[in-house]
Amino acid sequence: MTQTLTIARPDDWHLHLRDGAMLEAVLPESARHFARAIVMPNLVPPVVTGAQATAYRDRILEALPADMAFEPLMTLYLTENTDPQDVAAAHASGLVRAVKLYPAGATTNSASGVRDFDKVRPVLEKMADIGLPLCVHGEVTDHQIDIFDREAVFIDRVLDPIRRATPGLRVVMEHITTANGVEYVKSNPTDLGATITTHHLIINRNHILVGGIKPHYYCLPVAKREEHRLALRAAATSGDGRFFLGTDSAPHTDPNKESACGCAGCFTATNTMALLAHVFEEENALDQLEAFASKNGPGFYRLPVNTAQLTLQKHESPVTFPAKIATGEGDVTVFDPGFAVHWSVLG
Ligand code: NCD
Ligand code: ZN
């Protein structure tokens, strides 16, 4: 007997679509399965103003194949010069759904991010007033702090002080990778949520480093110890409304990944839903997949759950996915989970 699972159509609450030829190639990979996505603003130059977000949204919609439906939910890149009034206007018009905080230097294209958090206080206060969520890349950039500790230290040194100083500010901890992140969300009942990526449910740091370096498993925040992966799995499959899917699917061409100084990012848009079905089945939690991928995110962002649906099917034999997708900038390798997958999306 064939097993199928039908859920409300999922959304991706953290996605990198890039621009130009790369956008054209990767957008259908997301639009095929996801109704909406929070689109990251870390272009070069970054999407800082409402006008830039409007232009970027138009380019995304232009790149969308005519037979696909997809709603990009736009974000603004927070800089020390961001104008609170511009943010408020972009939110009021329905254009912008979140503001993204990158500590300067934390990750790909974050050079224009924040160095002095006092400089963004007026924007954060305005956001708390109007209920606009702040999406946070939660890693300190201090060279003294070990890369595997950067998320935990960020929570204590930066995030908790910001939240205490800005009551009512709604925060999404993006792509959490640690049990510390899970615990911080759980211990703060209001105004806090977290996205979890597909790949952080699948790999730990051994997968990156044992038996030879695997550049396609390198992303930021970097995958941590096994105990942290297990904490993320428990959170994602718990049904707790504060945890939701943000794939952080982040395409880089193969030469940029397979290099002496490779870029950070895993490209998972193509097979994320099948991999999640595999993970949730392993955790005996297939009944929680809809909450994680389709319901908790809209709950946090105060948007309706999609009325369209998505059906997953389990197969006797393993299914295959393309190893790479071709883009106008070069090939992009699709995330390889390292195990046989028996699920696919129907249709
Ligand atoms: C992202 C990218 O490539 O833009 N990379 C990554 O490793 N996740 C940036 C980010 O989200 O940190
Ligand atoms: Zn990202």
Structure description:
- There is one protein chain.
- This protein has an 8-stranded parallel beta sheet.
- It is globular, with a radius of gyration of 19 Å.
- The chain has a single domain (3-345), classed as Alpha-Beta Barrel (TIM Barrel), CATH 3.20.20.
- It has 347 residues and is of the alpha/beta class.
- The chain has helices at residues 20-31, 50-63, 84-92, 121-130, 150-165, 179-186, 199-202, 205-209, 226-236, 254-257, 272-282, 289-301, and strands at residues 3-8, 12-15, 36-39, 71-77, 96-101, 134-136, 171-173, 192-196, 243-245, 309-319, 324-327, 330-333, 341-345.
- Bound molecules: N-carbamoyl-L-aspartate (NCD) and zinc ion.
- N-carbamoyl-L-aspartate binds next to loops.
The best one-word shape is globular
Q: What portion of residues is helical?
A: 25-40%
Mean pLDDT: 97
Q: Can you tell me the CATH architecture? A: Alpha-Beta Barrel
CA-based gyration radius: 19 Å
Strand percentage, roughly? Answer: 15-25%
Question: What is the secondary structure topology, with strand pairs?
Answer:
Elements lengths: L2 E6 L3 E4 L4 H12 L4 E4 L10 H14 L7 E7 L6 H9 L3 E6 L19 H10 L3 E3 L13 H16 L5 E3 L5 H8 L5 E5 L2 H4 L2 H5 L16 H11 L6 E3 L8 H4 L14 H11 L6 H13 L7 E11 L4 E4 L2 E4 L7 E5 L2
Parallel strand pairs: 2-3, 3-4, 4-5, 5-6, 6-7, 7-8, 8-9
Antiparallel strand pairs: 1-10, 10-13, 11-12
Helix pairs in contact: 3-4
Bound molecules: N-carbamoyl-L-aspartate and zinc ion.
